[in-house]
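Q: Structure tokens for this one, please.
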Amino acid sequence: MSGARSRSLRERLYHELLDAVATHRVANRPDRFEPRRKKKRKAPYDLLMKSRAATKLDILKGVSKN
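A: Here is the predicted structure, written as tokens:
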């Protein structure tokens, strides 16, 4: 009996929440804007395909990928 009552209460609260969200208007904020740029740019470096430690050793030894 308690399970049915709690389910109906959850459904009622859910619908009240949806109504509150749907009726809330956001104020006009003229000085606010969203930048339309990609945050990450493609770096001019190759991907690190080995462990960082192994790559550091290769650099110290003078090993190049070519």
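A few notes: The radius of gyration is 28 Å. The mean pLDDT is 82.
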